[in-house]
Amino acid sequence: MKRSATVKKTDGKFVIENKKGEVVRSLDWQGIKLHIVYRHDTRRIETTDDIKSLKDQKIEFTSIEIVRKSDVQKRPVDIDQVGTLRYLENIDSLSPSPKTVDDDIKPLIGSIKWIGGVSTSLLFLLFIIAYFFKPEVEEVRVVEIIERPVQEKTKEVVPKQKIRKQVVRASRNKKVSPRQARAATVRKVKVTNK
């Protein structure tokens, strides 16, 4: 016959205490065994009933300790340098929660109004300066270039004047020295018709 593990239900809680004895975390422990692990992704010490779920999710962790519920109910278990895991009937001291103060938004609204007023004034001043000191607009002249039709250069043909060739011969009346005696030469003479 197999023995089944039965867990007594009590009003107490399983808690993790820091070194000062203040309760940091309370645990809802359902199973018989509890694995205390350090998760590398969150950098926290956590407890789990089943390590297989962490391995399935491929979460890196370091196993610190495996404890049984009956052992923790008898005596507290030290968790490395963090604190202890124990069973408490009544929780006396909790670690103090950080106190938060509601922010007062009146200074924020005042500063937003002041910044809005100053920026609007500066923008208005910029428009006034731009109106009075705007640069003069130069008149743009559009020059249209019209291409002239290309005229073919024609040469005027001037009729050539007729050149008549005339042979001049030495006259007989003149005395011709041997030096001057030459053969008859052809001279070009311009003849104009009038």
Task: Describe it.
- The chain has 194 residues and is α+β, with helices and mostly antiparallel strands.
- Helices cover 20% and strands 26% of the residues.
- The radius of gyration is 62 Å and the shape is elongated.
Report the total helices.
3
What oligomeric state best describes the polypeptide chains here?
A: single chain
Span between N and C termini? 164 Å
Provide the succession of SSEs: EEEEHEHEEHEE
Quick overview of this protein structure:
By secondary structure, this protein is α+β, with helices and mostly antiparallel strands. The chain is 20% helix and 26% strand.
Q: What attributes characterize this protein structure?
A:
three-stranded antiparallel sheet, disordered N terminus, four-stranded antiparallel sheet, 194 residues, 9 strands, 3 helices, alpha+beta, 26% strand
SSE map:
Layout: E1 13-18, E2 23-27, E3 33-39, E4 44-48, H1 51-56, E5 61-68, H2 69-74, E6 77-79, E7 83-88, H3 106-132, E8 163-167, E9 186-190
Antiparallel strand pairs: 1-2, 1-7, 3-4, 3-5, 6-7, 8-9
